[in-house]
């Protein structure tokens, strides 16, 4: 089965979930933290409808290339589908992920302006100090954090340190 997204060349969701499971196991074994981001392009459907699907694909490819060029080689980047992307930041604390993602965020803004795309991003980034029970729980936490941004004001990044259930 294919492990890459046909359009962007990034890992696809199937491959990403396997990588996330492996990162959770590594984190348990070596007792280290890791971070996970969930990235959504704000209003992508209306943007795609207004500029056309071919230009929409160009936008998705541009986002993928930007993430590849601006994040670290050890980070695992995937297009989960549609306009949703995710990144695993192995052995990365909250401070380290803020620094790593700041560069990507600036590069994304620059590329969107350069292409005259009126695009913004809602991003949730969670650092797991206490490990999630499984892949679904990890993704749910990151997804909920991203949607808290998307449903609030969009065009922002929310950070959270996960220390287990209260």
Automatic annotation (TrEMBL):
<dbReference type="Pfam" id="PF00990">
    <property type="entry name" value="GGDEF"/>
</dbReference>
<dbReference type="InterPro" id="IPR050469">
    <property type="entry name" value="Diguanylate_Cyclase"/>
</dbReference>
<feature type="domain" description="GGDEF">
    <location>
        <begin position="32"/>
        <end position="162"/>
    </location>
</feature>
<dbReference type="InterPro" id="IPR000160">
    <property type="entry name" value="GGDEF_dom"/>
</dbReference>
<dbReference type="InterPro" id="IPR043128">
    <property type="entry name" value="Rev_trsase/Diguanyl_cyclase"/>
</dbReference>
<dbReference type="InterPro" id="IPR029787">
    <property type="entry name" value="Nucleotide_cyclase"/>
</dbReference>
<dbReference type="GO" id="GO:0052621">
    <property type="term" value="F:diguanylate cyclase activity"/>
</dbReference>
<protein>
    <recommendedName>
        <fullName>diguanylate cyclase</fullName>
        <ecNumber>2.7.7.65</ecNumber>
    </recommendedName>
</protein>
